[in-house]
C-alpha cells in the first residue's frame, strides 16, 4: 500500500548492442539512450 509515497521511475531505452554491453558490465555510449521519467504518487485512503 502506498500512503502519500512517491516512487520515481526511469526507463532507459537502448539499442540491442548497447544493452548487451550493459548486461555484461561493459562501457557503452549513454548518448544513444532515450530516457522516460515519471513519478507515481500513492494517495491515502480510509477503509
Quickly list its features.
two-stranded antiparallel ribbon, 34% strand, 47 residues, 2 strands, alpha+beta
What does this structure look like?
The protein is 17% helix and 34% strand. It contains 1 helix and 2 strands. The protein is of the alpha+beta class. The chain is elongated.
Q: Could you provide a short overview of the structure?
A:
This protein has 47 residues and is α+β, with helices and mostly antiparallel strands. The chain has 1 helix and 2 strands; from the N terminus they run βαβ.
The rounded distance between the terminal residues' Cα atoms is 13 Å
Shape: elongated
Main sheet strand line-up: 1-2
SS-based structural class?
A: alpha+beta
**Helix residue percentage:** 10-25%
Order of helices and strands: EHE
Indicate the low-confidence ranges by residue numbers.
none
Instruction: Tell me the β content.
Output: 25-35%
Radius of gyration: 16 Å
Main beta-sheet annotation: 2 strands, antiparallel
Strand and helix map with partners:
Layout: E1 6-13, H1 16-23, E2 34-41
Antiparallel strand pairs: 1-2
Amino acid at each position: 500500500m502506498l500512503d502519500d509515497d512517491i516512487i520515481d521511475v526511469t526507463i532507459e531505452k537502448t539499442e540491442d548492442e548497447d544493452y548487451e554491453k550493459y548486461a555484461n558490465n561493459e562501457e557503452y555510449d549513454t548518448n544513444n539512450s532515450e530516457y522516460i521519467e515519471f513519478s507515481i504518487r500513492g494517495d491515502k485512503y480510509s477503509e
